[in-house]
Amino acid sequence: MVAVERVESLAKSGIISIPKEYIRPKEELESINDVFLEEKKEDGPQVPTIDLQNIESEDEKIRETCIEELKKAALDWGVMHLINHGISVDLMERVKKAGEEFFGLSVEEKEKYANDQATGKIQGYGSKLANNACGQLEWEDYFFHLVYPEDKRDLSLWPKTPTDYIEATSEYAKCLRLLATKVFKALSVGLGLEPDRLEKEVGGLEELLLQMKINYYPKCPQPELALGVEAHTDVSALTFILHNMVPGLQLFYEGKWVTAKCVPDSIVMHIGDTLEILSNGKYKSILHRGLVNKEKVRISWAVFCEPPKDKIVLKPLPEMVSDESPAKFPPRTFAQHIEHKLFGKEQEELVSEKKD
Questions:
Q1: Segment 305-348, tens digit of pLDDT
Q2: How far apart are CA 256 and CA 13, in angstroms?
Q3: Distance CA 300, CA 93 (A)
Q4: β partners of residue 258
Q5: Could you list the active site residues?
Q6: Fewer CB near the last or first residue (10 Å), C or N of the chain?
Q7: Any idea what DSSP says for residue 116?
Q8: β-strands 49-51, 79-83: how paired?
């Protein structure tokens, strides 16, 4: 296994300029600004905040209003801050504390959990390898593992330190799985489908996988030259994100990069490619990226809800296709979709596509 330079080690080495592999191409640099100033901007579009308090209300009118708000955000933005989502703040804080403590261990200690992408061992502690179009690197380390269904987990790969990591993360995964069902139902109704339709199409309780990726973005001496994560759309059906209240997430909306505000006790939710495909492009999978800064470490906890790799063929649902609205996506398994994104298109094309 080849030793990989961790971004954390690089950041702590005292460098004042970053290695060239981390410097973004010229056309991207024009849009990278100070994230703290960007977050303070009040003018221009803002990521919507959706209150889920009434998503299962007995009162039909109240419930419909909540579903309508969620649907509107999914059609227009494909990303939102969820509040009153039903997951306790205490549990979210435990998950964050456990992840922070794990990343607080020495790099040597974390290396015991290192993944090995060359041999297909993708779960564990890692850093981006130069496999993208321009051989570029991102300013982040991460920890990646499957967290649900419980019978598909491999707890031997999970951090043993801190001691609460496994319990807090397992409990959170269970709660997120319930939240995902509520969201799938509302989004199904929003498309005029039976409530359980979308969840069935992505694998249901048995097959839908929840994969957690803790993203650790060290302080960067030249944040105006780097990205924590480059522009991409999520391949998942839904993605749920917690963060440590340090800004960084940017969304490409109406031709401009918009910085998401930090909303206390919220969960950021993205619609991923999988739901964009099933809805034939009605629900949006928005292009997004992560900025870094020189003052504060940023950590985010992303949970990707993904269909099984080969069991399901993803294509626009027949109800979403008509003469006026022909199918925008060819049939592909989830694995083929990932393959297509990695090799069929370069990110530059994706950016220009979304701009058109």
A1: 999 999 999 999 999 999 999 999 999 999 999 999 987 655 44
A2: 35
A3: 12
A4: 251
A5: 213, 232, 234, 288
A6: C
A7: B
A8: parallel
